[in-house]
Specification:
Thiol Ester Dehydrase, Chain A, A-factor biosynthesis hotdog domain-containing protein, about 375 residues, alpha+beta, 14-stranded antiparallel β-sheet
């Protein structure tokens, strides 16, 4: 049984992770035995206690994003260490799903002796195998908090060769910048670059263009945030939603603005100028809570996501405005009589869909 430690410096939440590989029977019967379809791992770590985002707000529930972040932190390592994926390949999660099966363990317990321990049992199946090396991995997970089963999950991770990754990144950025034209209809000068300062451009440099209109809106959005309490947060600096539309037929949309000095981390993702995954998940969470709060009167301070399914379709550029739209279904009740509502969400930028998602929000008693 192999054990690896992901140190605090390499985790989003600042807590160490322990990853254990569970040997399969074929590993002890010699090379003639056929390998299984999947490998099994157990990932454990403390739930965050002092994170500027995940521990901000009423603290009624542990944030579901903590489970998603734990998986993201070890996905590439598993591919390289156990499946022989070359180190130069970039891993990208393009589908992620989590379903809460028991809400009780997700509640923050006042006076608990420790922060709580999240355990993720993972079955990882190689996919698109070429010359014995997978180009992708499929994850199926079971979640426990303090040894109490509380959820299931799934994820798909693809590994891109360096040139393929650069081409994808360059094309995505150019398409976004071309959609926001510069003065006189010319492409913005940064359209040929995959790097750009993470800041809003000066207004006087972009007047008279579609590029100006988009950034005029970005300036307005940055000065019209929703109340932190409406999205289940306490620190206004963690609010990503601005200038929401009036609710109509269950549909609400809001501008998404991730400031360059966001308390939860650097806005430039891994350094190439895209919005980090944690910010995208938080935008979905905030939009879901805002939509069901305004549409169904559900209290954000007692509500959390009970289900999340995300399909990532492209990169989100850190220096261009985004908008998240949600359509809330009719409210219902779960087996315990708690109010619930399901939503369909789309996060878009420069006319392109960045991701599509469905969520379910549950309001605790």
């Amino acid at each position: 049984m192999d054990t690896a430690v992901v140190t605090r410096e390499h985790t989003t939440t600042g807590a160490a992770r322990h990853l254990v590989h569970r040997p399969q029977p074929w590993e002890h019967t010699g090379p003639a035995a056929a390998p299984p379809a999947a490998e099994e791992f157990v990932l454990t770590g403390e739930l965050p206690t002092g994170h500027p985002l995940l521990n901000d707000g009423p603290r009624h529930f542990h944030d579901m994003q903590a489970a998603a972040e734990m998986l993201r932190e070890v996905g590439e390592f598993i591919g390289r260490d156990r499946f022989g994926v070359p180190a130069e390949r970039s891993g990208i999660f393009y589908r992620v799903g989590i379903d809460v099966t028991d809400l009780a363990p997700w509640r923050v317990r006042a006076g608990a002796a420790g922060p709580g321990r999240l355990t993720t049992v993972m079955r990882v199946r190689p996919d698109k195998v070429v010359d014995g090396v997978p180009r992708a991995l499929e994850f199926r997970t079971a979640l426990e908090i303090d040894e109490v089963p509380c959820g299931t999950g799934s994820a798909n991770l693809v590994f891109l060769a360096p040139m393929v990754h650069r081409n994808h990144r360059t094309h995505s950025r150019r398409a976004a910048l071309d959609a926001v034209r510069g003065p006189g209809g010319r492409p913005h000068p940064a359209a040929g670059s995959t790097r750009m300062p993470v800041r809003e451009p000066a207004r006087e440099q972009v007047r008279g263009s579609a590029y100006e209109s988009a950034h005029e809106s970005a300036y307005e959005f940055a000065h019209d945030p929703v109340d932190a309490g409406e999205v289940g947060r306490g620190d206004p600096r963690n609010v990503l939603l601005h200038a929401p539309s009036a609710l109509a037929h269950g549909r609400l949309s809001a501008a998404v603005h991730v400031p360059p000095h966001w308390p939860a981390g650097r806005c430039g993702g891994d350094g190439d100028g895209h919005v980090p995954a944690l910010a995208l998940l938080e935008a979905l969470r905030q939009t879901s809570l805002l939509a069901v709060g305004r549409g169904h009167g559900m209290a954000a301070g007692r509500s959390t996501l009970a289900a999340l399914q995300v399909h990532v379709r492209g990169y989100a550029e850190a220096d261009l405005p985004m908008r998240c739209a949600a359509v809330a279904g009719r409210p219902g009740r779960d087996a315990e009589g708690r109010r619930t509502a399901s939503l369909t969400l789309t996060l878009a930028q420069a006319g392109r869909t960045v991701l599509e998602a469905t969520t379910t929000v549950v309001e605790d008693h």
